[in-house]
Amino acid sequence: MLPFTPGYPPASPRLLAHFLPPLADGLAAHYIEQYTRPTDLIFDPFGQSPRVALEALHLNRRVLVANFNPISRLNLSLTVRPPSELELRAALTALADARKDHQRLEEYLLNFYASTCGECHQPVTADSFEWDGDDLLAKTYHCDHCQKDFTHLPTDAADRDLAYRFTRGLDYYLLLGRVAALESTGESQTRPDTRSHAEEALAVYPLRTIAAIAAVLVKLDALNPAPEIRRLLCGLFVAAFDATTTLTQDRPRALTAPKRYREHNFWRALEKAMGMLAGLPAPNRSVALPELLSPAEGARIHAHAGPARDLAATLPEGGCALLLTALPRPNQAYWTLSALWAAWLWGRDSTAALRTVLHRRRYDWAWHATALTHTLASVQRALAPSGHLIALMAESEPGFNACLFTAADSAGYSLSAAALRADTAEAQYIFAPQTFRVRSAETLKISIEDTAREAALATLLARGEPARWLTVHFTAWYALAEKHLLAALPDDPLTTVNRLLEPVFRDPAHFTRLGATPTDDPATGLWYVAPDVTLSARPSLADRVEAKILQLLSDNEPHDEHTLTQQLYVEFPGLYTPSQNLIQAALASYAEEIEPGQWRLRPEDSSAARAEELQAIQAELRALGARHGYTLAGANPLEWREAEHTVYTFAVLTTAVISHHLLGEYPPAHRRFLVFPGGRAGLAAFKLRRDPRLRAAFVAGNWLILKFRHIRRMAADSDLTRATLEPAFYEDPLDEAKQLALIPNSQLPILNL
According to the CATH classification, is domain 541-605 in 1.10.10.10? Predict the structure, then answer.
């Protein structure tokens, strides 16, 4: 199985980041270094993330990128050849100095947002306004006179009067006309729905913003700057176009203008964009395709302005060492806005490939699987026989995973390995080109059902704990792709397999749902094997991850969190990738962060210190039980008995490896206790919160949690009697509220957690 590669979070905001796949830094470089050599040719057939090309160029590879979206190609250009802040400032200053109505364009646009300070009553320029429908509610600005920032101050009559002056006038129809004018193909009139769809896209901009956009576009045309200056200005414009919509979602996929929104100052958005686009200047390594394909050494890139399948036939067979791509997913908002922005910046001819986007309202997974299949099939001939297809999927979800498994299998690739990190919804796939024999359709239905069921059950048993639907679904489709059962289906394999698998996973004889009813959406709750399915004695994944982290920390040396995480992913690859939250909870339980990202085992958690403490606590419990007249039995767990009946059971631990205690067989007892150091309480609470089986067993078994420190207090209390003994078990009021908050179930009787 494939160890998940985590990469690094971006160090700074990126252009159009909330529309594009959120690819971690270093992720593409990891696979490039592993599967290629310097000067090898790498082909990104979807061109969704500029990081792929950037990291390939840094590693001295030749890079071919295909993307029919001119906005994405502009983003790629600015990423692999970033301008300096000085160059951006010079370009924006040239635009700012252009004359508009007898004043500088910058002054003209800032006057759109003129206001008055609510404290000193001096003139200010608003950075943004808050709207609720047609009501202008509040403003945010910096006052130079007061030397203060003001947020969400009420607007006044002058603010409202200025805002309402902007109406759907010439500026609006100028922008609309650039998108919905007569087609250059000779049609006598614009398609009726083109205009309505363009109007829907324009509706995500306030009318004042539309006036500002029209002003800068007209001035850009009038200035007719040199190509490089135009490239920089177009980059600034796209960043501002994106920042000044009314869309509020973190990753919008539909153009739905909200009733309540923030209107941003367009000129200020242009100024802020400089910091986003600026970088260390790099040479222009863009070349024509023939030069890219030549055997000369050196990092080079060619960006094809069209779909990959139009390019594939021109490539030498087997000339690509690696197909590496961040997978696209349907995004009507981004594609429609791209059509809008491209038409504004470069005219209708630049948007020919995007024109159909304005007319398509719905992108379902079956459509997407077909589109992926066509592209992957067309580029396979360019891949070397020993090459690989690496597909990186951010925002992994069942439908998206099924699309790729289906498309790659149908396009003639064999699944080599894959990894899923379910908590962050990221998946990584490796495929190889291969010709395989399509299985007979006679036994296909049974094979699909049996393969999916067996794979899902095996994974759940191997994990030893419930899993999200994303993991269960991924497991089933992984197995189907591995056996090429998807390619064997002649028509619409995505829909066919979904239909076949629904009763498989609804079968209570094999699967059980925790926290959901059988009729709920599959993504609700967690999935596990049915009670009647034979269970292995394998410890839970969470317990195994905890034990591995403790082992890695046990050398008492500082550990880099990223390196430690990678070691864990190698130990627990593929479908067993631990969640980030689990890793963080375990680190916080055993180690101290001596500096950001550097962890070291706490001295009291060394194996020698904990072994000594374990013996001491066991001795305290034996002495405490004997002192109060109980008969003692066992060592660990220790039983306090009376009249041949077990009253209390104590399992003393130095870790939070609790699943075998909670799920194991114990004799009846009035109360059972898990006893461990205070540092384990948070980790134990985390495990109880994430696993419904453990929570249920905790309640059903009358378990409570005690800390070592509380046992010491009770042992030292000479006034403790039989009558006050049991209430004393509950006396740690300082942490009681905290432990109840950690486990969101008011009926969980957790003590001193």
Answer: yes
